[in-house]
Fold this sequence. Notes:
By secondary structure, the protein is mainly beta. The protein is built from 5 helices and 29 strands.
Amino acid sequence: xxxxxxxxxxxxxxxxxxxxxxxxxxxxxxxxxxxxxxxxxxxxxxxxxxxxxxxxxxxxxxxxxxxxxxxxxxxxxxxxxxxxxxxxxxxxxxxxxxxxxxxxxxxxxxxxxxxxxxxxxxxxxxxxxxxxxxxxxxxxxxxxxxxxxxxxxxxxxxxxxxxxxxxxxxxxxxxxxxxxxxxxxxxxxxxxxxxxxxxxxxxxxxxxxxxxxxxxxxxxxxxxxxxxxxxxxxxxxxxxxxxxxxxxxxxxxxxxxxxxxxxxxxxxxxxxxxxxxxxxxxxxxxxxxxxxxxxxxxxxxxxxxxxxxxxxxxxxxxxxxxxxxxxxxxxxxxxxxxxxxxxxxxxxxxxxxxxxxxxxxxxxxxxxxxxxxxxxxxxxxxxxxxxxxxxxxxxxxxxxxxxxxxxxxxxxxxxxxxxxxxxxxxxxxxxxxxxxxxxxxxxxxxxxxxx
Length: 451
């Protein structure tokens, strides 16, 4: 008896570990997927409803996390729209120890920014983890659009002014030199790297004040920081309050459960986004699920959806540095697999739209209704798959950004940018692992998910 295997199942099975086998996986998957259609449904149970797939239009140059590649590791993107000339809009993305990369809409690099160096070589290096934007921030030198990034290496925010026509590159560092660590009490704590991690920006429509919400690596904390203008056109921040998400959970059978992790580590948050219409923060606790809470951190959080692995016991193996999972008690969700990453907001002109999350464990993306009246119900999902043998899709996606606005002739209906954690090199080789970002036409995606 044949089991129900789709082309997507086989591609994930083969390609995740053996990208050079992609053509064989596709061919075999097509054959078996067709074969299952000939088998009566009752012979193998209810047929799975495969998610729609979209293919990227472009990809950024490969980043290599090794000495020769400058320890560059793609993580999180943000899309800046040039209101005066949408064709000259930008994608600003983090590359961890390699800082920031800035790309045009053809996915060509236009600027690279290194993170700040450390005075002591024994101190942790700068490491840019997540990035988000604020438009029209009032500075002492006038209003400006800015990019804000979490510097995990130094436990600080770094803030950059965006000027598309600046000769030296569109980004200029305007971080106040007096900016203090966010979570750490000193350099020794910073070196332990339980530091600034995930990030989302938010402008409160009632007050006009702008904020950054920052999570803490290996902890459940989220800090609310107000972004402030300082002298000389600089920008800093002040901490308003913090909130800790749960690290232990009571299961329906009465047992207490915490996600398996290295001793001393708690289930961290990385992907975050704020819906400006209602001031709600959506935070992805990687091994738990997606939380909804007020962006001002003044109310109790609610769990919108759980990962499939929720409630599964595990034992950490010191030798392998991996967790061995026990029997699944069946308390998890059915739509997202750990890690939950890459939260972003897809808005629509009529007020509808979606909270979009990458489901890193199964290489999919999930969509939730952004309307609170519908309790953020699940609306479906999709995959970003290969456009060709040299333009692959997105696997193990860390970060994502979407903008539903005209971006000139290339993306007249908007753009989705997703990180690819297993980038396929142009020559098909597998000797050197690389990462990058894929550009997806948002109009094509909306057509697929609306079908």
